[in-house]
Amino acid sequence: MATLTKNDIKITRTETSKISSIDFNNLAFGQVFSDHMLTCDYKDGKWHKPEVVPYGPITLDPSSKIFHYGQSIFEGMKAYKDNNGDRFLFRPMDNVKRLNLSAKRLAIPELPEDYFMEGLKALLDVDQDWIPTNEGSSLYIRPYVFATGNGFHASPADAYKFIIATAPSGAYFSGKVNVLIEEQYSRSANGGVGFAKAGGNYAGQFYPTQLAKDKGYQQVIWTDDTTHEYIEEAGAMNVFVRINDTLLTSPVSDRILDGITRKSILQLAEAEGIKTEVRKVKVSELVEASKNGSLKEMFGAGTAAVISPISGFGFRGDDFEIPEQDQSFASQLKNRIVAIQTNKAEDPFGWRVKL
Amino acid sequence: MATLTKNDIKITRTETSKISSIDFNNLAFGQVFSDHMLTCDYKDGKWHKPEVVPYGPITLDPSSKIFHYGQSIFEGMKAYKDNNGDRFLFRPMDNVKRLNLSAKRLAIPELPEDYFMEGLKALLDVDQDWIPTNEGSSLYIRPYVFATGNGFHASPADAYKFIIATAPSGAYFSGKVNVLIEEQYSRSANGGVGFAKAGGNYAGQFYPTQLAKDKGYQQVIWTDDTTHEYIEEAGAMNVFVRINDTLLTSPVSDRILDGITRKSILQLAEAEGIKTEVRKVKVSELVEASKNGSLKEMFGAGTAAVISPISGFGFRGDDFEIPEQDQSFASQLKNRIVAIQTNKAEDPFGWRVKL
């Protein structure tokens, strides 16, 4: 099959742009949406050519399997614009490949990589004015696939829809976050779908997260569901811990998302001369390190939040504060990654993709 | 708040009934849908009155959280009609209560019980002609709730839709099923959402089930995700095992659905003088019992499949056949439960609800 290029993609433009109604200086996260979206249908056993169309409603039968059996996966990406107006993506092929890993686990047909990448490029050509240039803002990109096929039988759908929608966005969190280490509820099972960006992984976290919020925390740090002795991830972020001058993070597994920001940070830290260790981290080790003063930092890492410093953690009714660092790894690494993403620094890793 | 009754519910009838196009003698499971549905919206912090409307398309914004974060729950019920044309439900309040247990775990606002029950009654008045009377057929009822609120932030939606749709249906499985005992993939985590009827629980099973189908099995029997030593449930069914003359089934837990058919079978078996044990069942015990001839039967139990006899199981590359029984518990109990459901027998348990 010939490869699709962005110029092959049919574009239907909106008649009335919303862009003049958007306050780009006061953007929340993922609440206003650009004028267009990419849409692509799977039916009759294959993915049909993607098209760019005006952002608008989706109509489904009440028996569509998305409503019943949770077949949905997504990715999170960002587009950046520099002072010259050049536009950039960050490691986009990693998102393409991970979407297809998620697809396979959720019994969703894998998507041709060029449909995703060339479709995204065509969309970002049409909506290039929607990429914010303010510091800390970017165009959040949400590629997702969900079951549209009909019927109440609990089996994979015979039709799916792939969409890329975009939202000019500000910060995901404002300020540091205080986290609760969770021992009762779990995010994912051994042999489950925790490594995938599956919709159901998120819904299952909302209730325990709400209980944590009611106690004054903003996020939950999940532990393994078997022993609850090891920290895993924070649901929307991977977790890093600095003990003395070593940066630790859990290995990825079938329970833990292989975060693109996570692996970028590991490479960046190495390049910056920061010692890293990828190994399982015990909750008891965190508590001990907090007590003896060797716990210097914790932070979350993910596309939406980039690097999100953690101010402290709760565990079994006790709160452990993490003191402010003058020279924090979180700031150092966040500055580096954002500079690369936004074309303010060289990119020795080949991560940045110019559009 | 005054209780809603079915007569308070606004009804908008379809202008063109599809019923004459349906072949009630050849019904698949959940593939044709009755003329109407009940619909009920949660917004502005409350559930609004349900209405009966023509079965028809649902329109959503591309950022609706159902597409992204898997907030969806459902129930499965059936309506039966006897030879006098009287209509019956089976333990419907158990579905109402379980829907709200699922809702709580998935951070979905709980539904007023009368909105569900009185709404269902109103719907089944309007669509009473859709309840099949053929042996083995029934009107499958699908109550479900999903997130309609918009936005890419990974947090609970601010709007939801509750729908009851119905589908005149034949058998879920045709004939006995051959199952695979799964040791690599898992259905649910300790502290997870396995006990809830959450959409995501089903999507996660499709791929391992497909792998099992490729090997010649129709269903997977899930084991606990920590040790894989104990059988749990079959995803769409709870599992019963007969060893000699004792009927065993796993206790429900946060990983195992509290099936209404399951608990009805336990009560029925007791009334029939069948010895039951609710305890964890080891895979090794099944293998041993199969080898020494004490494994007499296995069957699945659930609303859709009622009681579904299992012809054998695969485990670690070996196949264990379960011989045909002249006097099977599966047949005896299925006949009893169906007779009660369809008003062909007395109902000493008070399970049947006449509409």
TrEMBL record, chains A, B:
It catalyses: L-isoleucine + 2-oxoglutarate = (S)-3-methyl-2-oxopentanoate + L-glutamate; L-valine + 2-oxoglutarate = 3-methyl-2-oxobutanoate + L-glutamate; L-leucine + 2-oxoglutarate = 4-methyl-2-oxopentanoate + L-glutamate. It comes from the Bacteria. InterPro entries: Aminotrans_IV, Aminotrans_IV_CS, Aminotransferase-like, B_amino_transII, BCAT-like_C, BCAT-like_N, BCAT_family. Pathway: Amino-acid biosynthesis; L-valine biosynthesis; L-valine from pyruvate: step 4/4; Amino-acid biosynthesis; L-isoleucine biosynthesis; L-isoleucine from 2-oxobutanoate: step 4/4; Amino-acid biosynthesis; L-leucine biosynthesis; L-leucine from 3-methyl-2-oxobutanoate: step 4/4. GO terms for molecular function: branched-chain-amino-acid transaminase activity. Its cofactor is pyridoxal 5'-phosphate. Its EC number is 2.6.1.42. Keywords: Amino-acid biosynthesis, Aminotransferase, Branched-chain amino acid biosynthesis, Pyridoxal phosphate, Transferase. Belongs to the class-IV pyridoxal-phosphate-dependent aminotransferase family. Acts on leucine, isoleucine and valine. This is Branched-chain-amino-acid aminotransferase. It comes from Olleya sediminilitoris.
